[in-house]
Amino acid sequence: MKKILFTLAMMLTFALLLVGCGSSDASSGSSSDSSAEETKEITIGYFPNINHVPAMVAKSEGYYEDRLGDNIKIKYQTFPDGASFMDALKTGEIEAGLVGPGPAMNNYTNGADVKIIAAGSTGGTVVLARDGSGIETVEDIASKTFITPRVGCTHDVQFETYMKELGITSKRINGTMIHQTGKPATYQAMFETGKVDVAVAPEPWASVLQQKTGAKVIIPADEVSFGKTLPASVLVTSGSLIEENPELIQNIVDAHKDATDFINENPEEAKAIAINDIKEITNQELSKEVIDGSWENIGFTYEVDEEAIQAFGDSSYDLEFLKEKPDFEDLIDTQFID
């Protein structure tokens, strides 16, 4: 009887040891899984204008979160112009985002590590004259003051290309037009105080100028140089990030494509999202009429017209924004949208 009791006690002790070992292994595995699921942060950049609605929609509908998964936290950062956006991309402050093709091209030619991976929109650049400026035709702009977001930005190149074909250039290249720069959200005040005569305005600010100040459209969005073919915004990232994590970039592009499809399938909902997002960023609430007018001047697509981008770059060189004639073959990487 004692032998039986001793044997049972030994078996129970051994069983308890096994349970203890199993518990230890499970705890170890849980710790490892927790480490593997460490949250990372990705920041997407964009501007508060209608050409950048895909980013606003992706933000509102959670498309980046859906595509990138629970272990990646998505942040959004807005910029007033392409120069500040590109500085953020080069320093790693943002991983990807929407910017005008001009800043992307200019920085690429200066050696920046930037890749265009999709288009965002087309059109949207409108040239308007201030009421009372005396400007009735394009030729009247010759000695007037015009404003763009930055020197050599997308809108600036479109306008100056158009004007140069008419033999009219800015003082920067020995012409007569006077150039100022400023945030598009301030153009209304600039018109109302008479500080500038012409605004080269991205939407929705072009429609704001028409409705709020009585500005006259001198060059419509579909007539300004490259207005029908050039991507007005492009989705960019760095070449190093493409090499390091192509799966991440594919998910970013897929989320961008989801947003573009949403805009084209649900325009009224996309307009409401744009109104809310722009108000949150700029403290300016745009009317539905302004947004409707803007929408007529813009198309949304993720397909990239590579020939149009090269032609735009050649014109930037011709206008002396670039020191060397560019070759954009390695700037554009369409593998993620094909």
UniProtKB/TrEMBL annotation:
Keyword Calcium in record: no
Single GO cellular component term: periplasmic space
InterPro entries per the UniProt record, alphabetical: ABC_SsuA_sub-bd, NrtA/CpmA_ABC-bd_dom, Solute-binding_3/MltF_N
Signal peptide range: 1-26
Entries under Gene3D superfamilies matching the protein: Periplasmic binding protein-like II (3.40.190.10)
PANTHER family: ALIPHATIC SULFONATES-BINDING PROTEIN-RELATED (PTHR30024), TAURINE-BINDING PERIPLASMIC PROTEIN (PTHR30024:SF47)
Coiled-coil regions, chain positions: none
Name of the protein in question: ABC transporter substrate-binding protein
